[in-house]
Amino acid sequence: MSIRHGLLALLERGPRYGSRLRTEFESRTGSTWPLNVGQVYTTLSRLERDGMVVQDGADDAGHDLYAITDAGRTELHTWFGTPVDRTHPPRDELAIKLAMAVGAPGVDIREVIQSQRRHTLKAMQDYTRLKAQALADVPSDRDEVAWLLVVEQLIFQAEAEARWLDHCESRLVRLAEAAATEPSAGPGPAATRGPARAPAERSRSQR
Asked: What are the backbone angles phi and psi of residue 64, rounded to the nearest 5°?
């Protein structure tokens, strides 16, 4: 999640102070990725260092305002126009957990899968309820539309995870069935010729 670019996008709408940026960021994303004020000001400090924002006086309440610069706008528009890189995906805890559970002693991987599936389906139901609430009234402003897009992405993500868990369980079942039907190792070539005779027995038989 690019907090840096998210703040730049909000600042493009006009100068803002840190607490307002946090509130608007969470409103736009439905608090899916909550921020604390410390994160906001740390990011603003780095953006200011990089020439992306400048301090722009204060409002009537004495809050220090930040404004986006031309360099910040260029950075923001480059971000909007650049596809999110999928060649180096972030670490996924669930994928790592299942990979490590395969063959781990004392771990029932099917129970791990079933437990995760129950959690994922519960999350998907919760997201679906949130979507229904958002659609109860036709979204009328940009924050409502943005939140609807976010919650729908969470629904699709949960659906994909549930399908992947079904696939993992099916694969484990097939592997278990294949292992159960493998024939046991038969006698080797030497065994089919009968027991080997000692050298003395061979020499007597050749007389």
From this structure: -70, 125
